[in-house]
């Protein structure tokens, strides 16, 4: 096995490290800790955060990439597979390998299209059995419903068992922390008498465990969400799409954050011609409709990748580079809003007494910018990051549809919807690809929206209202 | 007032010049004419003469910024930059790869896009204001909460969902509107109903929520209390006092809707088969035709800058303080 770290992987690791560092910093800083507590104290906010955390966990699993070892005899250099896999691929290897020839409905045992099959020298057009779904059934027409229900129930019970375990763990933790008995701690949680809405979090966790238990149990023998045109299991495809959505949602803001923050603080604090120039720059960039700017840059990027194929040895490297640059481009077109916000805030802060005191003490400009101003605009950065997340996830779908999004070979909600755009007009309509893509996207974006509302309310009830 | 307008116009022209330079830099320096030629002629093994010929055909054979071979002012003017940029300034966008004149195409396609975008703009802003005011009447009640939840849910749905399901349900299942297509003249109405409705719906959540917040903020002001103390009815307070004072933020966000409309047009037009600017852009992207995309970038930015300018004038109209600055 050879560990592979793609460009976006580095950035994902960096984001994780930065988040942990920030969390540690929050815990040590009382006023930040209390603000964050306020964000998580809202029941809807913490429920949304739980769902997001589950998605992020899947995304992280999909970020640990490796290439499989093919042969390793002594004396020769080991050879590795050309395919870059992730830990998620390994966990879902059954679903990944279980391909069909083409479409099949959710939980089906027959294919969507009729095929000519020859049995006993007689050729008939029938719906053939699927290769990798429902193969264990003797008489599928009779047994399938019962089988699906039993498997689903077993999975659900397993999921609930995990949820129960988590609940026990939480109760134990809570009782240790408060120095009260287990029963008292449990009754606190159950009746919602805790500082954080633990009851809501536990409820969300149970729902998640219930759903994922059911789906996982069924996905061993069936295609829970059906298969797409080339026969890929949609459950697997949609799990892979999550990472793309998460990467686009976070990296785009992050990549260009230094520019936005740096220019914003400089413009606001120094004023004068520097302010004029920076304002001019962001007005120019802001004036180009973002889709067109993205279209232009992605076209240029595609030409670059085509002309420098030697820089990207594997297909994974190529699609990943395109994803990375797409994030950069998306960020480049959206940093202007944050820059303007920060500039406005700094203009207000510039007149604050503590800044004047710092100036009077002869503190250098650089130090004022980095030590006195930067921490005081952090909340704006945070809020804008959380707010832009959902917009970026939605934008990815539209961009991929237009043909300027991620590489067509990369699994994402956009490419999924794009390949499925004409499926509804077939007869009978193929609804499952779109239904799967849209419902996962909706869950992700909705929880991001709700969470961002909670964060915004906690940090700054009045600053940004968009 | 005139001073203000003149200043804004000059600034807009400067911004346009900046955009022109930026797009030129993107399309000719980062992505050189050689790359373009290679892409169009196919593959890496293209003879140097073929590239030179392609460049000469498209007028890209001069140096980009500085022509050292020419003397005097020609050193600056006989360049791709000057010839291309000045062309764009008097609306000469060059030709598409198939040899059609881009300016002519733009002129032909602006109509359908406007026919779709204008009703969308009016209906979307109007409906959002009406809904937001409606929520204001029931603020802090259960209906308000339900409304906000619905708005957040609406915001979280991809616009592609509205397009695809709208087309399927109303176009195919119920056959109320044609699936796609366009015809000029009065016949265009039936083709435009569905795209307009779909687009308005996908905008409704975010806009209504924004206006709701704006109104809520205004309602907390002192003048509202005064108006109520005078014994004015709630609807008078909302419609004459609050609405009037909320105009500035509403104009700002409505102005921002315009570039969003262009974006929306790209997706909508290709779904509904409307031969407007959006489908022209898609054509350019699919053919990797840099001339089309560049023309569209400049044209789109021009519209955007123009909207900004109009927004500024609207500010001056809505708020006397701006005029006096």
Question: Notable features of this structure?
Answer:
heterodimer, A: 466 residues, MetI-like fold, three-stranded antiparallel β-sheet, two-stranded antiparallel ribbon, B: 325 residues, mainly alpha, 15 helices, 0% strand
Compact description:
The complex is a heterodimer of chains A (466) and B (325). Chain A is mainly alpha-helical. Chain A has helices at residues 7-28, 30-41, 43-61, 87-91, 93-97, 140-178, 182-190, 198-219, 234-270, 272-287, 290-307, 315-350, 353-360, 365-402, 413-419, 432-459; strands spanning 2-4, 65-71, 79-86, 115-119, 122-126.
Largest sheet of chain A: 3 strands, antiparallel
CATH superfamily of the domain at 241-448 in chain A: MetI-like
CATH superfamily of the domain at 109-324 in chain B: MetI-like
> If you consult CATH, what is the topology of the domain at 241-448 in chain A?
MetI-like fold
Helix content of chain A: 55-70%
Shape of chain B: globular
Spatial strand order of the main sheet of chain A: 1-2-3
Provide the CATH architecture of the domain at 241-448 in chain A.
Orthogonal Bundle
Radius of gyration of chain A: 26 Å
What's the helix-strand series of chain B?
A: HHHHHHHHHHHHHHH
Number of strands of chain A: 5
What's the β-strand tally of chain B?
0
């Amino acid at each position: 096995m050879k560990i592979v770290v793609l460009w976006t992987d580095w950035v994902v690791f960096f984001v994780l490290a930065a988040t942990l560092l920030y969390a540690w910093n929050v815990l040590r800083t009382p006023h930040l800790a209390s603000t964050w507590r306020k964000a998580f104290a809202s029941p809807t906010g913490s429920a949304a955060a739980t769902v997001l955390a589950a998605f992020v966990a899947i995304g992280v699993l999909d970020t640990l990439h490796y290439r499989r070892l093919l042969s390793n005899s002594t004396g020769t250099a080991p050879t590795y597979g050309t395919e870059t896999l992730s830990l998620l691929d390994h966990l879902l290897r059954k679903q990944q390998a279980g391909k069909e020839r083409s479409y099949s409905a959710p939980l089906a045992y027959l294919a969507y299209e009729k095929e000519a099959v020859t049995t006993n020298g007689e050729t008939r057009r029938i719906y053939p059995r699927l290769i990798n779904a429902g193969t264990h059934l003797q008489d599928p027409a009779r047994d399938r419903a019962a089988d699906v229900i039993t498997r689903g129930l077993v999975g659900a019970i397993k999921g609930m068992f995990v949820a129960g375990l988590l609940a026990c763990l939480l109760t134990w933790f809570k009782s240790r922390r408060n120095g009260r008995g287990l029963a008292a701690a449990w009754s606190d949680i159950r009746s919602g008498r805790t500082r954080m809405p633990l009851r809501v979090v536990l409820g969300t966790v149970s729902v998640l465990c219930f759903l994922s238990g059911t789906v996982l149990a069924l996905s061993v023998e069936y295609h829970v969400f059906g298969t797409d045109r080339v026969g890929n299991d949609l459950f697997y495809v949609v799990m892979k799409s999550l990472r793309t959505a998460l990467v686009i949602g976070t990296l785009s803001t992050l990549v260009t954050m230094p520019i936005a923050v740096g220019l914003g603080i400089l413009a606001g604090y120094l004023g004068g011609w520097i302010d004029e120039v920076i304002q001019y720059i962001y007005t120019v960039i802001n004036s180009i409709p973002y889709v067109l700017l993205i279209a232009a840059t992605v076209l240029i990027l595609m030409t670059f990748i085509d002309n420098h194929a030697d820089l990207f040895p594997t297909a994974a490297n190529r699609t990943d580079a395109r994803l990375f640059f797409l994030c950069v481009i998306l960020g480049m077109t959206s940093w202007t809003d944050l820059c303007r916000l920060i500039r406005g805030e700094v203009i207000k802060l510039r007149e604050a007494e503590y800044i004047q005191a710092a100036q009077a003490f002869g503190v250098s400009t650089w130090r004022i910018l980095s030590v006195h101003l930067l921490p005081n605009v952090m909340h704006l950065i945070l809020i804008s990051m959380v707010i832009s997340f959902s917009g970026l996830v939605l934008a990815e779908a539209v961009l991929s549809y237009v043909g300027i999004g991620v590489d067509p070979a990369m699994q994402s909600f956009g490419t999924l919807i794009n390949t499925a755009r004409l499926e509804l007009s077939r007869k009978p309509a193929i609804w499952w690809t779109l239904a799967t893509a849209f419902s996962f996207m909706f869950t992700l974006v909705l929880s991001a929206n709700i969470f961002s509302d909670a964060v915004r309310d906690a940090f700054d009830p009045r600053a940004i209202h968009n | 007032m005139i001073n203000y307008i003149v200043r804004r116009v000059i600034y807009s022209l400067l911004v346009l010049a900046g955009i022109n330079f930026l797009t030129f830099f993107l399309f000719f320096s980062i992505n050189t004419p050689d790359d373009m030629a290679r892409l169009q002629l196919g593959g890496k093994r293209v003879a140097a003469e073929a590239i030179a010929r392609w460049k000469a055909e498209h007028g890209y054979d001069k140096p980009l910024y500085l022509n050292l071979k020419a003397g005097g002012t020609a050193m600056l003017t006989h360049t791709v930059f000057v010839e291309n940029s000045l062309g764009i300034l008097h609306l000469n966008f060059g030709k598409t790869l198939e040899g059609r004149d881009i300016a002519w195409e733009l002129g032909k396609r602006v109509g359908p896009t406007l026919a779709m975008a204008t009703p969308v703009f009016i209906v979307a802003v109007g409906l959002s204001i009406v809904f937001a005011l409606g929520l204001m009447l029931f603020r802090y009640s259960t209906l308000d909460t339900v409304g906000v939840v619905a708005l957040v849910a609406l915001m979280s749905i991809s616009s592609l969902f509205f397009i695809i399901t709208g087309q399927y349900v109303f176009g195919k299942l119920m056959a109320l509107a044609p699936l796609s297509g366009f015809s000029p003249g009065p016949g265009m109405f039936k083709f435009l109903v569905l795209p307009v409705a779909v687009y308005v719906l996908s905008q409704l959540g975010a806009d209504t929520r924004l206006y709701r917040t704006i109104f809520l903020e205004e309602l907390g002001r002192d003048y509202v209390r005064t108006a109520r103390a005078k014994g004015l009815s709630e609807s008078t307070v909302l419609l004459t006092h609050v609405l009037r004072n909320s105009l500035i933020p509403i104009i700002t966000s409505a102005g921002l809707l315009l570039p969003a409309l262009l974006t929306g047009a790209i997706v909508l037009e290709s779904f509904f088969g409307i031969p407007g600017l959006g489908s022209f852009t898609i054509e350019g992207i699919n053919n990797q035709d840099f001339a089309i995309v560049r023309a569209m970038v400049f044209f789109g930015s021009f519209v955007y800058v123009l909207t900004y300018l109009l927004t500024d004038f609207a500010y001056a109209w809505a708020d006397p303080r701006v005029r006096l600055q």
